[in-house]
Write a structure and sequence with these properties.
Arc Repressor Mutant, subunit A; TrmB-like; 12 helices
Length: about 300
Protein backbone atom coordinates (compact mmCIF):
# COMPACT_ATOMS: atom_id res chain seq x y z
CA UNK A 1 0.00 0.00 0.00
CA UNK A 2 1.36 3.43 -0.96
CA UNK A 3 1.17 5.94 1.90
CA UNK A 4 -0.95 9.06 1.24
CA UNK A 5 1.36 12.00 0.54
CA UNK A 6 -0.60 14.29 2.86
CA UNK A 7 -0.25 11.96 5.83
CA UNK A 8 3.44 11.43 5.11
CA UNK A 9 3.99 15.18 5.04
CA UNK A 10 2.13 15.65 8.32
CA UNK A 11 4.17 12.97 10.05
CA UNK A 12 7.29 14.71 8.74
CA UNK A 13 6.12 17.91 10.39
CA UNK A 14 5.99 15.98 13.65
CA UNK A 15 9.62 14.87 13.32
CA UNK A 16 9.68 11.71 11.20
CA UNK A 17 11.75 11.49 8.04
CA UNK A 18 9.95 10.68 4.79
CA UNK A 19 11.19 7.08 4.89
CA UNK A 20 10.21 6.68 8.55
CA UNK A 21 6.70 7.98 7.84
CA UNK A 22 6.25 5.65 4.88
CA UNK A 23 7.54 2.62 6.79
CA UNK A 24 5.34 3.37 9.82
CA UNK A 25 2.23 3.74 7.64
CA UNK A 26 3.00 0.50 5.83
CA UNK A 27 3.12 -1.30 9.19
CA UNK A 28 -0.14 0.32 10.31
CA UNK A 29 -1.89 -0.70 7.08
CA UNK A 30 -0.58 -4.28 7.26
CA UNK A 31 -2.28 -5.14 10.53
CA UNK A 32 0.33 -7.85 11.22
CA UNK A 33 4.08 -8.03 11.85
CA UNK A 34 6.28 -7.44 8.79
CA UNK A 35 9.96 -8.10 8.22
CA UNK A 36 12.24 -5.53 6.65
CA UNK A 37 11.86 -6.90 3.14
CA UNK A 38 8.05 -6.71 3.34
CA UNK A 39 8.17 -3.18 4.75
CA UNK A 40 10.40 -2.06 1.88
CA UNK A 41 8.12 -3.71 -0.68
CA UNK A 42 4.92 -2.18 0.72
CA UNK A 43 6.22 1.27 1.60
CA UNK A 44 8.58 2.09 -1.25
CA UNK A 45 11.48 2.63 1.16
CA UNK A 46 14.71 1.38 -0.52
CA UNK A 47 15.85 -2.02 0.76
CA UNK A 48 19.29 -0.55 1.33
CA UNK A 49 17.95 1.80 3.98
CA UNK A 50 14.85 0.04 5.32
CA UNK A 51 16.58 -1.57 8.33
CA UNK A 52 18.22 1.72 9.30
CA UNK A 53 14.80 3.37 9.00
CA UNK A 54 13.10 0.70 11.12
CA UNK A 55 15.90 0.99 13.68
CA UNK A 56 15.18 4.71 14.08
CA UNK A 57 11.47 4.07 14.40
CA UNK A 58 12.13 1.45 17.06
CA UNK A 59 14.51 3.73 18.94
CA UNK A 60 11.84 6.46 19.05
CA UNK A 61 9.17 4.00 20.21
CA UNK A 62 7.04 4.25 17.05
CA UNK A 63 7.61 0.54 16.26
CA UNK A 64 8.48 -2.61 18.18
CA UNK A 65 10.65 -5.57 17.22
CA UNK A 66 8.95 -8.95 17.35
CA UNK A 67 11.06 -12.14 17.06
CA UNK A 68 9.48 -15.24 15.60
CA UNK A 69 10.22 -18.83 16.59
CA UNK A 70 12.90 -19.09 13.90
CA UNK A 71 14.53 -15.90 15.26
CA UNK A 72 13.34 -13.75 12.34
CA UNK A 73 12.93 -10.08 13.30
CA UNK A 74 9.59 -8.51 12.39
CA UNK A 75 8.07 -5.19 13.30
CA UNK A 76 4.77 -3.93 14.72
CA UNK A 77 3.72 -0.26 14.86
CA UNK A 78 2.72 1.63 17.97
CA UNK A 79 -1.04 2.14 17.42
CA UNK A 80 -1.75 5.52 15.79
CA UNK A 81 -3.83 6.82 18.72
CA UNK A 82 -1.01 6.00 21.15
CA UNK A 83 1.57 7.55 18.82
CA UNK A 84 -0.39 10.79 18.58
CA UNK A 85 -0.90 10.95 22.36
CA UNK A 86 2.81 10.38 22.91
CA UNK A 87 3.76 13.09 20.39
CA UNK A 88 1.29 15.50 21.96
CA UNK A 89 2.77 14.95 25.44
CA UNK A 90 6.29 15.29 24.09
CA UNK A 91 5.58 18.52 22.24
CA UNK A 92 3.59 20.04 25.09
CA UNK A 93 6.49 19.34 27.44
CA UNK A 94 9.00 20.85 25.01
CA UNK A 95 6.82 23.89 24.34
CA UNK A 96 6.35 24.43 28.07
CA UNK A 97 10.11 24.40 28.63
CA UNK A 98 10.75 26.77 25.73
CA UNK A 99 7.97 29.09 26.87
CA UNK A 100 9.80 29.49 30.16
CA UNK A 101 13.35 29.61 28.75
CA UNK A 102 13.16 31.73 25.59
CA UNK A 103 11.88 35.01 27.11
CA UNK A 104 14.84 35.00 29.49
CA UNK A 105 17.36 35.18 26.63
CA UNK A 106 15.53 37.67 24.42
CA UNK A 107 17.03 41.17 24.70
CA UNK A 108 14.77 44.23 24.77
CA UNK A 109 13.46 44.97 21.30
CA UNK A 110 15.32 47.74 19.50
CA UNK A 111 13.51 47.46 16.19
CA UNK A 112 9.76 47.33 15.75
CA UNK A 113 8.39 45.20 12.95
CA UNK A 114 6.17 46.05 10.04
CA UNK A 115 5.98 43.33 7.43
CA UNK A 116 3.67 42.69 4.51
CA UNK A 117 1.17 39.85 4.34
CA UNK A 118 -0.09 38.62 0.99
CA UNK A 119 -2.92 36.13 0.56
CA UNK A 120 -5.90 35.16 2.68
CA UNK A 121 -4.19 32.24 4.41
CA UNK A 122 -1.10 34.25 5.38
CA UNK A 123 -3.15 37.14 6.74
CA UNK A 124 -5.54 34.96 8.75
CA UNK A 125 -2.71 32.83 10.09
CA UNK A 126 -0.87 35.91 11.37
CA UNK A 127 -4.12 37.30 12.76
CA UNK A 128 -4.60 33.98 14.52
CA UNK A 129 -1.16 34.41 16.11
CA UNK A 130 -2.19 37.85 17.37
CA UNK A 131 -5.49 36.58 18.80
CA UNK A 132 -3.86 33.53 20.39
CA UNK A 133 -1.17 35.73 21.94
CA UNK A 134 -3.58 38.15 23.63
CA UNK A 135 -3.42 38.10 27.41
CA UNK A 136 -5.21 41.28 28.49
CA UNK A 137 -7.33 42.83 25.76
CA UNK A 138 -8.25 42.22 22.14
CA UNK A 139 -9.74 44.70 19.67
CA UNK A 140 -11.25 43.37 16.45
CA UNK A 141 -12.96 44.81 13.40
CA UNK A 142 -14.13 41.87 11.34
CA UNK A 143 -16.59 40.57 8.77
CA UNK A 144 -18.51 37.25 8.92
CA UNK A 145 -16.22 35.66 6.31
CA UNK A 146 -13.21 36.17 8.58
CA UNK A 147 -15.06 35.57 11.86
CA UNK A 148 -15.60 31.97 10.80
CA UNK A 149 -11.84 31.35 10.65
CA UNK A 150 -11.01 33.11 13.93
CA UNK A 151 -14.06 32.24 16.02
CA UNK A 152 -12.51 29.41 18.03
CA UNK A 153 -9.36 31.40 18.85
CA UNK A 154 -11.46 34.38 19.95
CA UNK A 155 -13.55 32.11 22.19
CA UNK A 156 -10.39 30.68 23.72
CA UNK A 157 -9.09 34.22 24.36
CA UNK A 158 -12.35 35.13 26.08
CA UNK A 159 -12.20 31.94 28.16
CA UNK A 160 -8.74 32.80 29.49
CA UNK A 161 -9.95 36.22 30.66
CA UNK A 162 -9.01 38.45 27.73
CA UNK A 163 -11.30 41.49 27.36
CA UNK A 164 -12.61 41.08 23.80
CA UNK A 165 -14.08 44.10 21.99
CA UNK A 166 -15.38 43.48 18.48
CA UNK A 167 -16.92 45.63 15.77
CA UNK A 168 -18.62 43.27 13.34
CA UNK A 169 -20.19 43.86 9.96
CA UNK A 170 -22.37 40.78 10.43
CA UNK A 171 -25.81 40.44 11.96
CA UNK A 172 -26.53 38.59 15.22
CA UNK A 173 -23.14 36.90 15.32
CA UNK A 174 -22.40 35.10 18.57
CA UNK A 175 -19.01 36.65 19.29
CA UNK A 176 -17.83 36.55 22.92
CA UNK A 177 -17.06 39.69 24.87
CA UNK A 178 -18.38 43.13 23.96
CA UNK A 179 -19.68 43.03 20.39
CA UNK A 180 -21.08 45.93 18.34
CA UNK A 181 -22.68 45.70 14.92
CA UNK A 182 -21.83 48.25 12.25
CA UNK A 183 -25.24 49.83 11.60
CA UNK A 184 -24.39 53.44 10.73
CA UNK A 185 -23.59 52.43 7.16
CA UNK A 186 -24.83 49.08 5.82
CA UNK A 187 -22.03 46.62 5.09
CA UNK A 188 -22.72 46.91 1.35
CA UNK A 189 -22.10 50.67 1.48
CA UNK A 190 -18.91 50.22 3.52
CA UNK A 191 -17.70 47.63 1.05
CA UNK A 192 -18.39 50.00 -1.84
CA UNK A 193 -16.56 52.85 -0.12
CA UNK A 194 -13.47 50.85 0.85
CA UNK A 195 -13.35 48.36 -1.98
CA UNK A 196 -12.53 45.58 0.48
CA UNK A 197 -13.50 44.06 3.80
CA UNK A 198 -11.19 46.04 6.09
CA UNK A 199 -9.91 43.86 8.94
CA UNK A 200 -8.16 44.82 12.19
CA UNK A 201 -6.93 42.67 15.08
CA UNK A 202 -4.97 44.20 18.00
CA UNK A 203 -3.68 42.30 21.03
CA UNK A 204 -2.69 43.95 24.33
CA UNK A 205 -2.00 47.30 22.57
CA UNK A 206 1.22 45.51 21.58
CA UNK A 207 0.80 44.03 18.09
CA UNK A 208 -1.70 44.12 15.28
CA UNK A 209 -2.73 42.85 11.89
CA UNK A 210 -4.43 45.23 9.47
CA UNK A 211 -5.63 44.02 6.11
CA UNK A 212 -8.23 43.97 3.40
CA UNK A 213 -10.12 41.03 1.88
CA UNK A 214 -11.66 40.94 -1.59
CA UNK A 215 -13.26 37.58 -2.28
CA UNK A 216 -10.59 34.99 -1.51
CA UNK A 217 -7.70 37.43 -1.95
CA UNK A 218 -6.15 39.56 0.78
CA UNK A 219 -3.31 41.96 1.56
CA UNK A 220 -2.16 43.60 4.76
CA UNK A 221 0.54 44.05 7.39
CA UNK A 222 1.60 42.78 10.78
CA UNK A 223 3.21 45.30 13.12
CA UNK A 224 4.35 45.73 16.69
CA UNK A 225 5.23 49.38 16.05
CA UNK A 226 3.53 51.35 18.87
CA UNK A 227 2.34 54.08 16.50
CA UNK A 228 0.70 51.61 14.12
CA UNK A 229 -0.83 49.66 17.00
CA UNK A 230 -2.22 52.83 18.57
CA UNK A 231 -3.84 53.93 15.30
CA UNK A 232 -5.37 50.46 14.85
CA UNK A 233 -6.87 50.47 18.36
CA UNK A 234 -8.21 53.99 17.98
CA UNK A 235 -9.76 53.11 14.62
CA UNK A 236 -11.78 50.30 16.20
CA UNK A 237 -12.72 52.39 19.25
CA UNK A 238 -13.71 55.38 17.11
CA UNK A 239 -15.83 53.25 14.77
CA UNK A 240 -17.65 51.68 17.73
CA UNK A 241 -18.22 55.13 19.23
CA UNK A 242 -19.78 56.26 15.95
CA UNK A 243 -22.22 53.33 16.05
CA UNK A 244 -23.17 54.09 19.65
CA UNK A 245 -23.70 57.80 18.92
CA UNK A 246 -25.86 57.05 15.90
CA UNK A 247 -28.12 54.84 18.00
CA UNK A 248 -28.91 57.79 20.30
CA UNK A 249 -30.31 60.07 17.57
CA UNK A 250 -33.37 59.72 15.33
CA UNK A 251 -32.60 57.41 12.43
CA UNK A 252 -33.91 59.85 9.79
CA UNK A 253 -31.68 62.66 11.10
CA UNK A 254 -28.64 60.40 11.12
CA UNK A 255 -29.38 59.20 7.59
CA UNK A 256 -29.87 62.77 6.32
CA UNK A 257 -26.62 63.93 7.91
CA UNK A 258 -24.73 60.93 6.57
CA UNK A 259 -25.92 61.49 3.00
CA UNK A 260 -26.23 65.29 2.77
CA UNK A 261 -23.26 66.69 4.69
CA UNK A 262 -20.73 68.19 2.26
CA UNK A 263 -17.64 67.33 4.27
CA UNK A 264 -18.74 63.75 4.84
CA UNK A 265 -19.36 63.41 1.11
CA UNK A 266 -15.85 64.65 0.43
CA UNK A 267 -14.31 62.25 2.94
CA UNK A 268 -16.21 59.37 1.36
CA UNK A 269 -15.44 60.33 -2.23
CA UNK A 270 -12.37 58.12 -2.63
CA UNK A 271 -14.31 54.91 -3.22
CA UNK A 272 -12.07 51.85 -3.30
CA UNK A 273 -8.88 53.64 -2.29
CA UNK A 274 -8.36 51.52 0.83
CA UNK A 275 -8.26 48.32 -1.21
CA UNK A 276 -5.97 49.93 -3.79
CA UNK A 277 -3.53 51.10 -1.09
CA UNK A 278 -3.45 47.73 0.66
CA UNK A 279 -2.97 45.86 -2.60
CA UNK A 280 -0.11 48.14 -3.59
CA UNK A 281 1.51 47.95 -0.18
CA UNK A 282 0.88 51.61 0.59
CA UNK A 283 0.77 54.93 -1.20
CA UNK A 284 3.07 57.93 -1.43
CA UNK A 285 0.08 60.23 -1.31
CA UNK A 286 0.49 61.52 -4.86
CA UNK A 287 -2.37 59.51 -6.29
CA UNK A 288 -4.92 60.05 -3.54
CA UNK A 289 -8.26 61.09 -4.94
CA UNK A 290 -9.87 64.23 -3.66
CA UNK A 291 -8.18 67.60 -3.36
CA UNK A 292 -7.64 69.79 -0.33
CA UNK A 293 -10.43 72.10 0.73
CA UNK A 294 -10.93 74.28 3.73
CA UNK A 295 -13.12 73.03 6.53
CA UNK A 296 -16.67 74.34 6.50
CA UNK A 297 -16.78 77.53 8.48
CA UNK A 298 -13.30 78.48 7.30
CA UNK A 299 -14.12 78.97 3.62
CA UNK A 300 -13.69 82.34 2.00
CA UNK A 301 -16.84 84.11 0.87
Amino acid sequence: MTAPDGVVAQLQELGMSMYEAKAYLALVAAGEPLNGYEVAKRSGVPRSTVYETLGKLTASGATYEVRTDDDTVTYLPLPPASLLDRLRRRYESTLGSLRAALPAIVPPSRVHLIHNLTGRDALLERAGDVVAGARHDLFLSTWPQENVDLEQLVREADARGVAVTTLTYGEDEEIPGHTYSHRLSPPAVVLENLGCRLFVAVADRRECVIGGFVGDDAWGIFSDNPAVVMVAVEYVRHDIAMQLMAEHFPADEVAAFWTDDVDLARLRSDHGFAATALRAGGSDGESRPGGRRRRRGGRSA
